Amino acid sequence: MVFYKSLIQWYLQNKRDLPWRKTDNPYFIWLSEIMLQQTRVAQGLPYFLSFTEAFPTVFDLANAPEEKVLKLWQGLGYYSRARNLHATAKHVAYNLDGKFPATYKELLKLKGVGDYTAAAIASISYGEPVPVVDGNVYRVLSRYFGVDTDISSTQAKAEFRELAGSQLPKDSAADFNQAIMEFGALQCVPKSPDCTNCIFNANCVAYATGRVGELPVKLKKTKVTNRYFNYLIVKDANSNSLMQKRTAKGIWHNLYEFPLLETVTEVPEKQTVQLINTFPGFDFPVTDIKLLTPVNVIHKLSHQHLHIRFWEVKTNNVVKNALSNDELRELPVPVVIHNFIDKHWV
């Protein structure tokens, strides 16, 4: 049995009907690959459709205000992807006459484009025989060939890239790369794969040796930091509220949020009320403070767990720069704030 032939045959019979599979336009391939980094297809698909409707060409994306790009990206997470996406669109539109680089090496020079994305675009759009290596590829190859290299180790990417390259048919790079990713997403899934109905079960080392659940090997644990956020929802005499832009580097850069009181540990309610009363950003008298979320909202990011409480802070004054509900809803915000507004806003 030839691995790549069986894989491509499986793919042609089982692949999902996805819009970026119907084109080799590098703009659409690039857009889909950036969106699908660390994102499931079911979650990313509506965003792809929204972006391609709003920005049908790279020039449309390049000319869009950043706030519109971030607003459309809202809820997809890892917002640095959106900012890099916008920056790269400007570079391609303004410096490259709207034409994406046609080789893997040149694609790597684009902001936000790493090995995997460059290989995907180069192979799918231009037919360059360069292998993709992502989580799905690690899983399929490690199980089929019985590779127990720790995928979080420094040598893993080069090892798996070489192995994938050795199986890659030079004249069918696009189909092979999409096939191995699709196989990992649909058949050779992380937990409890249906190995009895797998086309490779007669030759799969992991299946033959009972190690499907052990491969791929990943030893490095992600260190998680806990952070404690208190969001202060100001309600002034006009029922308007304050929002601020996160300009510091880190999570949610350039998104908007309510005034934030962050503490090192979780502070009891009574002490938090005292801190809110002396909040340095408020130059108006506070008449009432009420906790709106008795149970903390836990928002999990890749390296951080945010423990969030929302507080209503009332004042009888008219607060300068406060926004109406309609104005507030136009701003790009983190999904946890978007969800709060949808649930609690009057």
Automatic annotation (TrEMBL):
Its cofactor is [4Fe-4S] cluster. It holds the Pfam family HHH. It is an enzyme of class 3 (hydrolase). Keywords: 4Fe-4S, DNA damage, DNA repair, Glycosidase, Hydrolase, Iron, Iron-sulfur, Metal-binding. GO terms for biological process: base-excision repair; mismatch repair. PANTHER family: ADENINE DNA GLYCOSYLASE. Residues 35-186 form the HhH-GPD domain. It catalyses: Hydrolyzes free adenine bases from 7,8-dihydro-8-oxoguanine:adenine mismatched double-stranded DNA, leaving an apurinic site. Its EC number is 3.2.2.31. The gene is mutY. One of its GO terms (molecular function) is adenine/guanine mispair binding. Belongs to the Nth/MutY family. InterPro entries: A/G_AdeGlyc_MutY (IPR005760), DNA_glycosylase (IPR011257), HhH-GPD_domain (IPR003265), HhH_base_excis_C (IPR023170), HhH_motif (IPR000445), MIG/MutY (IPR044298), MutY_C (IPR029119), NUDIX_hydrolase-like_dom_sf (IPR015797). Gene3D superfamilies: Helix-hairpin-Helix base-excision DNA repair enzymes (C-terminal), Hypothetical protein, domain 2, Nucleoside Triphosphate Pyrophosphohydrolase. Adenine glycosylase active on G-A mispairs. MutY also corrects error-prone DNA synthesis past GO lesions which are due to the oxidatively damaged form of guanine: 7,8-dihydro-8-oxoguanine (8-oxo-dGTP). Binds 1 [4Fe-4S] cluster. This is Adenine DNA glycosylase.
